[in-house]
TrEMBL record:
Membrane-crossing residue ranges in chain numbering: 412-433
Protein's organism: Kitasatospora putterlickiae
Pfam families linked to this entry: VWA_2
InterPro entries, A to Z: CLCR, VWF_A, vWFA_dom_sf
Superkingdom, taxonomy of origin: Bacteria
Protein's UniProt name: VWA domain-containing protein
């Protein structure tokens, strides 16, 4: 009896081994899932960010959650440095950090590189930040020029992140004029400003600097907000540094809207406004679009952003939405659409709005509508509008996921292989179990 029971176990092992080999052979024919480096990435410049930190005397004020402004900034910078992506070239420039005398003319020259832009030694960078003590004046304009030199020139977008608690106390040069000067040089420089003080003069100046270069302004109230915002800006430099956003201006109707081709665009949208853009989509193409709206001023809780693709007749084709409740200062959403994915419900409209493209292929005009449901807190200015960044792409249309014979590829093949393997294994185990019982009964 014992011998009879061992025999089926040995045969069972052989059968399972054979099944494993067969399954492995089947699975080996499937395409590999291993990630491959994207084409052209090796020869591209790295994203470059220079953080300009105000270390003037007023940074000693303790009015952010009971802590001094400089200590809040230092803690946030430590967190940001710890989270830096490995590919980012990051540097730090100070203003008002070293000169301790009373000569204002000399103090207004006080801007220096604390840490050069490049691959960051995180321990050295955090040690340098920890040594800073609020000292002098606020030469923002001069510091912006220095930051542009720190970042150098190139084909990719460079980003300056300015953290300050007040307006420039050393003009000339006026920082708004410097920002316009840098923007006019065509060096792909974006300046984002973060204000630790909340007076109207400072807000206007920081908004002016950001607007001149296509950047954003954020009114900072807590350390957590400062940390998250700087991290977002560093991450954004990784996402968009290779493509400088093109300024555009959406309209309130599709007929008068600007025509967009694949690319990245920047615009501004007032509270609860709708901005419309047009995108020609050829037969066989799929439209992919995404939008991010930055809440660069104090807004009421509960807000959202809506991105719609509609026909020129106003029929909605597809939509994407995102919502927040005061815990984030960027809301983003996206969509994808093609005539093939419409399942016929938009056929009449798209046929009516189709035109002939220069290539001779039929073309459908799709209207992209960006809407927001944000409302400003009391006393918050509505102008200029909230900064938005719109990305448009056109690719070969992918088949609808639930269509017949859609060739979803390895997903379906893998499911089929696993089903067949399970069926075969079930039959084998059933036969082996019956055989073992028969042997046991004979013994």
């Amino acid at each position: 009896m014992t011998t009879g029971l061992r025999r089926p176990k040995a045969r069972l092992g052989s059968l399972l081994a054979a099944l494993a080999i067969a399954g492995g052979a089947l699975l080996s024919g499937l395409p590999a899932h291993a990630d491959e480096p994207s084409a052209g990435a090796a020869g591209r410049e790295a994203p470059r960010v220079d953080l300009v930190l105000d270390v003037s005397g007023s940074m000693n004020q303790a009015d952010i959650q009971g802590r001094t402004r400089i200590s809040v900034a230092q803690q946030s910078l430590n967190d940001v440095i710890d989270a830096l992506p490995s590919e980012t070239e990051f540097g730090i420039r100070t203003l008002g950090a070293y000169y301790q005398g009373d000569d204002k003319a000399q103090g207004c020259l006080d801007t220096k590189q604390l840490f050069p832009v490049g691959k960051t030694n995180k321990v050295e960078a955090k040690t340098a930040v920890a040594t800073l003590r609020p000292t002098g004046w606020t030469p923002i304009g001069l510091a912006l020029r220095g930051a542009a030199q720190d970042l150098g020139k190139g084909e990719t977008t460079r980003r300056v992140v300015l953290i300050t608690d007040g307006e420039d106390s050393c003009a000339p040069p006026d920082p708004c004029d410097v920002a316009r000067e840098l923007a006019s040089q065509g060096i792909h420089l974006v300046v984002d400003t973060l204000g630790l003080a909340h007076d109207e003069k400072t807000r206007r100046q920081l908004l002016c600097i950001a607007n001149a270069t296509g950047g954003t302004y954020t009114d900072v109230r807590t350390q957590e907000q400062l940390t998250e915002k700087v991290k977002q800006l560093v991450d954004r430099s990784n996402d968009t540094y290779a493509v400088a956003p093109v300024k555009t201006a959406g309209t309130d109707t599709c007929e008068s809207a600007p025509v967009l081709t694949p690319g990245v665009y920047s615009d501004r949208e007032k509270f609860s406004e709708h901005r419309v853009y047009r995108v020609p989509v050829k037969a066989g193409q799929e439209l992919r679009a995404s939008v991010s709206v930055s809440l660069d001023r104090a807004v009421a809780r509960d807000y959202g952003v809506l991105l719609q693709a509609t026909s020129t007749a106003g029929q909605e084709l597809v939509r994407g939405t995102d919502a927040g409740s005061g815990r984030t200062d960027v809301v983003s959403t996206g969509l994808r659409w093609s005539a093939a994915a419409s399942k016929g419900y938009a056929t009449a409209t798209t046929t009516a709005t189709a035109s002939a493209s220069p290539s001779g292929k039929p073309e459908t005009i799709v209207c992209l509508v960006v809407s927001n449901s944000a409302a400003g807190q009391p006393g918050v200015a509505a102008d200029p509008g909230l900064p938005l960044e719109l990305t448009v792409d056109l690719t070969a249309a992918s088949p609808a996921p639930d269509g017949p014979a859609m060739g979803l590829g390895r997903g379906w093949i893998l499911l089929l292989v696993l089903t067949l393997a399970g069926l075969v294994a079930g039959l084998l185990f059933g036969w082996i179990a019956r055989w073992r019982i028969a042997v046991w009964q004979e013994n």
